[in-house]
Structure formats: structure tokens, C-alpha cells
């Protein structure tokens, strides 16, 4: 009798295990494949479905070596179930002229951008990696990834070779008028050789010591060129929950994001930093920067 009970329990466990294996993912992977046009792979142990897209359209050389996509030039997006939604995370291989249009495409689709950086030195053309994420359902997230990839395709179809500069010239002699910018920012800045720079410190601490503006915990903007043909570059200090608002506002004003990373590891609160580059009228650029600052906590 005991033997029969043991056999029955073992059989039931075997059926349950087989059912779990057959069940596979709890979300619609077929829709993800259909929308993106990419075949995916399901990792049962982690319950993750992943699609990938190697960059084969442009040859990349790293350290004077023709680099195959297998060695790290492949975009991907991975999907897994959360408590009440589907979660997506991905990494997207981009050339310099693709980064900002693709970032805007991600925002248009309701996705988040969480990092932007390089993986190589001596790469030609230069390659950047933009991390994306989102929460929602299969249809929404897959369409977001599709929009990101279609934006890349449209850029390369229009110009097969990546651009080597942003559109618009930068005057060789700088004559930026400081007073209008100081009035707009509500703070005195620094002028030098016709250029203008302004900085806004933020509060943090490290190893029990307060740190702020002078230690690099700041948002700053530097202007060169002329009032009508200006270039601005700078850095944004952002708390993690501020980053999406800042990025969306900067892109909405046409300012290019060129890096998103951390500068420190043990500060409290922890800051992320975004570097940017923009061209246009100095006042318009300043208004976009100020607008982005207003999305942050006081």
C-alpha cells in the first residue's frame, strides 16, 4: 500500500513538472516576435524571453580589427513577467548620428532610457550603447522596441555611412552676451573670451563629509559661438527619479544627449550624470536647460 502511495506521489510530481515545462512563458511571445519581426529565445530557468538584432549594416573596426557582431555588436531586448505587468530591458547598438533620434523614438513609445556609454576604444565608426526599459504589456513594449529599431533603419537608409558631425556651424569667434542668460537663469555666471558658463550645485555627502558644487555635484552649462549661432555643452546632476524628466525635456528642446553615467559610488543621495551638446540660439538653448532643471526636485 505504501509503495502504491509513493508511486502515485512520484507520478503526480512528474506530471506537474512536465506541465510546467510545457507551459513555458506566461506571456505572449508570439506577438513579440510578430511585431518586432525577430525570433526570440526563452530561458526557462529565469523565465525570460529575449530577442536580438546584430548590427550587420555597417562594418565596425575596433583596434584596427574588423569586429564581428558576435563580439558585442548586437542589440537585444528581454521580456519577463512582473507582479502585474510585463517588464522589458534592453541594450541598443548605435552610431553617433543615431543616438538622439533613437532616444526620442524610445520616449515617443513610452519607454525609458537608463544609460548611454561606449564599450570600446579606437572604434571606427564610434559605437555607443543605449540601455532602454519599460513596463506594460506585450503589444506596447514590442511596438516600442520595433519603433526604436525602425528609427535606426530609417537613418541608415537615408545615409548609409554614419555622420561625423551635427548639423549647423559653430562660429570661430565667440561673442555670447552674458546678461540675458544670467537673467534667464537667475544667477551670475562666468565669462571668458566671449564664452559664458554657469553652474548650479546640488547637495550630497560622502564618507560623512558634505559635498556639493566645488566637488563636482553640479549641473553646469557652457555657451560659445554667437547669440544666434551658439553651441552649449554641459552636465546634469540627476537623482534617479529625476532622470527621465530631464532627458525628455532636453530632447524635446532639440539638445543632444551624449552620455549618461555615474561619477561617484558612495555618495548619499546617489546622483547620475548626463552630458549634452546643443546648437541653436543661445536663449533657446538656455530656456530648454532651465526647463529641464525645473523638472527636478527643489
Question: Could you provide a short overview of the structure?
Answer:
This protein has 298 residues and is an alpha+beta fold.
Q: Can you tell me about this structure?
A:
- The chain is an alpha+beta fold.
- The protein contains 7 helices and 18 strands.
- The protein has helices at about 1-25, 30-35, 95-110, 140-160, 180-185, 245-250, 280-295, and strands spanning about 40-45, 50-55, 60, 65, 75-80, 85-95, 110-115, 125, 125-135, 190, 195-200, 205, 210, 220-225, 230-240, 255-260, 265-270, 270-280.
- Strand 10 and strand 11 (about 195-200) form a beta hairpin.
- Helix 3 packs antiparallel against helix 4 (about 140-160).
Structural class, by secondary structure, is alpha+beta
Count of helices? 7
Give a quick account of the main beta sheet: strands, pairing sense, barrel closure: 6 strands, antiparallel
As for the number of domains, it is 2
Roughly what percent helix?
25-40%
Secondary-structure map:
Blueprint: H1 2-23, H2 29-36, E1 40-43, E2 48-54, E3 61-62, E4 65-66, E5 74-81, E6 86-95, H3 96-108, E7 112-117, E8 123-124, E9 127-136, H4 138-158, H5 178-185, E10 190-192, E11 195-201, E12 204-206, E13 209-211, E14 218-225, E15 230-238, H6 243-252, E16 256-261, E17 267-268, E18 272-280, H7 282-294
Antiparallel strand pairs: 1-2, 2-5, 3-4, 3-8, 5-6, 6-9, 7-9, 10-11, 11-14, 12-13, 12-17, 14-15, 15-18, 16-18
Helix pairs in contact: 2-4, 3-4, 5-7, 6-7
Amino acid at each position: 500500500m505504501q509503495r502504491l502511495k509513493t508511486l502515485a506521489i512520484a507520478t503526480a510530481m512528474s506530471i506537474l513538472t512536465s506541465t510546467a515545462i510545457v507551459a513555458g512563458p506566461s506571456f505572449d511571445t508570439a506577438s513579440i516576435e510578430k511585431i518586432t519581426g525577430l525570433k526570440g529565445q526563452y530561458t526557462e530557468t529565469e523565465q525570460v524571453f529575449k530577442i536580438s538584432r546584430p548590427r550587420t549594416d555597417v562594418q565596425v573596426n575596433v583596434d584596427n580589427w574588423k569586429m564581428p557582431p558576435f563580439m558585442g555588436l548586437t542589440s537585444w531586448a528581454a521580456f519577463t513577467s512582473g507582479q502585474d505587468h510585463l517588464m522589458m530591458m534592453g541594450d541598443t547598438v548605435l552610431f553617433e548620428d543615431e543616438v538622439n533620434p533613437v532616444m526620442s523614438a524610445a520616449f515617443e513609445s513610452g519607454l525609458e532610457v537608463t544609460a548611454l556609454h561606449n564599450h570600446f576604444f579606437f572604434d571606427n565608426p564610434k559605437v555607443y550603447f543605449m540601455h532602454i526599459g519599460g513596463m506594460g504589456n506585450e503589444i506596447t513594449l514590442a511596438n516600442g522596441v520595433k519603433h526604436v529599431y525602425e528609427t535606426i533603419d530609417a537613418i541608415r537608409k537615408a545615409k548609409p555611412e554614419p555622420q561625423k558631425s551635427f548639423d549647423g556651424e559653430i562660429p570661430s569667434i565667440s561673442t555670447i552676451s552674458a546678461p540675458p542668460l544670467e537673467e534667464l537663469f537667475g544667477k551670475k555666471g562666468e565669462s571668458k573670451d566671449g564664452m559664458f558658463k554657469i553652474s548650479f550645485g546640488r547637495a550630497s555627502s560622502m564618507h560623512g563629509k558634505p559635498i556639493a558644487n566645488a566637488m563636482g555635484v553640479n549641473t553646469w552649462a557652457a555657451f560659445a559661438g554667437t547669440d544666434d549661432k551658439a553651441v552649449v555643452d554641459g552636465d546634469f546632476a540627476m537623482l534617479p527619479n529625476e532622470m527621465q524628466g530631464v532627458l525628455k525635456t532636453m530632447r524635446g528642446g532639440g539638445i543632444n544627449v551624449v552620455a549618461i553615467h555615474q561619477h561617484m559610488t558612495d555618495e548619499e543621495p546617489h546622483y547620475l550624470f548626463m552630458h549634452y551638446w546643443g546648437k541653436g540660439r543661445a536663449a533657446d538653448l538656455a530656456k530648454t536647460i532651465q526647463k529641464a532643471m525645473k523638472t527636478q526636485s527643489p
